[in-house]
């Protein structure tokens, strides 16, 4: 790494920390975090990132690399995308490690809302380290969904839809393959790979017999990815033994209940921080009505059906004044289709 | 115009012709056309464009400007976005004028399908002028809808929709204001200004009492634009005398019939080449089922209703295999909303 040739500006250091952090696994109990250490002259002496639960945190990784390069960490400034942790889990507390290494200044891009691990900034300040929360878009974006999940005590819920322009997810006779293009369907595999679990209903499982796996290139004949989301089935009906969701391509949790809140609480305990909801209009409406959807990723095909199933069931909305408005975060064209990434406004 | 300093390459000349042509009025019986004349050395000697029915055609305008600049037109090459006309309408035939001016070479970007005015290229070839159809995206795009209208013998029909993500155009209680943002609604005024007529149904007129006018900036309080589309009402019910569609803000044609084909034939005779369909799901479905829609401009708001009127009525489609697929031509974000420009594939 010839990064040590010229001093870095603070924003460049955090840019680099965000880039490093993005290398971490997204579908992990732990957040993606990157860290960069600069010496007192602003020269890069080490950078690191977190590689998933059970491995070193980003700060530790960066300190380790600085020491491997025989760099002095005393008096250094650390740029970290997330507030350093203050608790001993499977690894020691990072706040302590930074203090012990003599780091003089810690800049972080987002606070850690984790009730167990948070508080690292306060610990460092009390220990006499100059500690500063400085917003940085890319760095904060790395942990946005994770931080919300930790604050809520349940996974971030992304509801995925694939519909025609007229909001249909199936024709009048129930046929629904395929509404969107292969490109959009491959994108769904990518989306799934970013989630710790996929939740569906027994209704969808019985009607469509889906796989809900992640395959290379999103192609049905692609190799199964090493990491698969946990497949979770909500509902009281039994699935046939030969249902794809019960195969050994990925783990599956059959909950025999429709309790969305309980399901999310259980997934949270198991370290799932983001869930993809891939279900029919009734279960989607149930999640929405309970305020359990954070985001909608909507694939819209340039097609009309004029009849057939709608993408969402009754929401109890009867007048335009009560329409459920979402925030548009992204619009991306995928071949013939368009993907909208929308967020549900927070209820305070 | 200091364009005569350096020779232009053929593609540059047609780029310029397309740019000039784009200055013409879009909502006109005549197409937007631009023309550029280069002398034998490739130097610009004149450019022109058509300014609407009753004014000079682009070629005549360009010849006029070349002569005003004391340029020799003998031996010149003309780059024209559309095949020169061969008939005498309110102006003389352009093919003849080009021949008389001694133009040696005519390059045009799209053929004129007009059964009355077409044939200019053949006329010129027979008169010994080197004549060449050479495709150019921007030049051909200027007349794409117009050429299709002339080939069909009816206006190009653009159906405008404004719906929620779940394809609703109104809440369960019938309220529908407003689904889309002010930015999207202003864009509709811009779209209207590009059309010779707006077609609606008595149903929409009675339910919503719309204006269907074009106002500056698309704001309700904006000044009425000088040029307004003809407002056309299809259906058998009478409108109240104080209906906005019967005010004097724009002309209105009340047809007292639901015959879409007859309405379009009449508008074609009156020189309307593009129509905007702003109506409810029943009339839109009737137009679609008769193959009378060429394009859909769909404004989608990031909102969910879960119930209420759908954007399109029954299309007689019961299975996914028969879904009506459209071609995506453009996806544009407009503030919170997204605008899809889709085309109906041709039935051969």
TrEMBL record, chains A, B:
Binding annotation for Zn(2+): 57, 85, 94
Identification of the protein by name: Riboflavin biosynthesis protein RibD
Binding residue positions for substrate: 176, 192, 215, 278
Occurrences of domain CMP/dCMP-type deaminase (ranges): 8-132
Cofactor: Zn(2+)
Pathway noted in the entry: Cofactor biosynthesis; riboflavin biosynthesis; 5-amino-6-(D-ribitylamino)uracil from GTP: step 3/4; Cofactor biosynthesis; riboflavin biosynthesis; 5-amino-6-(D-ribitylamino)uracil from GTP: step 2/4
A GO molecular-function descriptor: diaminohydroxyphosphoribosylaminopyrimidine deaminase activity
PROSITE patterns in alphabetical order: CYT_DCMP_DEAMINASES_1, CYT_DCMP_DEAMINASES_2
Protein function: Converts 2,5-diamino-6-(ribosylamino)-4(3h)-pyrimidinone 5'-phosphate into 5-amino-6-(ribosylamino)-2,4(1h,3h)-pyrimidinedione 5'-phosphate.
Cofactor note: Binds 1 zinc ion.
Alphabetical list of Pfam families matching this protein: dCMP_cyt_deam_1, RibD_C
Zinc in keyword set: yes
Source species of the chain: Kineosphaera limosa NBRC 100340
Active site: 59
Gene (UniProt): ribD
Record field: catalytic activity: 2,5-diamino-6-hydroxy-4-(5-phosphoribosylamino)-pyrimidine + H2O + H(+) = 5-amino-6-(5-phospho-D-ribosylamino)uracil + NH4(+); 5-amino-6-(5-phospho-D-ribitylamino)uracil + NADP(+) = 5-amino-6-(5-phospho-D-ribosylamino)uracil + NADPH + H(+)
GO biological process: riboflavin biosynthetic process
Alphabetized NCBIfam families for the sequence: eubact_ribD
Binding-site residues for NADP(+), renumbered to this chain: 162, 178, 204, 208, 280-286
Family that this chain belongs to: In the N-terminal section; belongs to the cytidine and deoxycytidylate deaminase family.
Keywords noted in UniProt: Hydrolase, Metal-binding, Multifunctional enzyme, NADP, Oxidoreductase, Riboflavin biosynthesis, Zinc
InterPro entries: APOBEC/CMP_deaminase_Zn-bd, CMP_dCMP_dom, Cytidine_deaminase-like, DHFR-like_dom_sf, Eubact_RibD, RibDG_C, Riboflavin_Biosynth_HTPR
Superkingdom per UniProt: Bacteria
UniProt keyword Nucleus present: no
EC number(s) given by UniProt: 3.5.4.26, 1.1.1.193
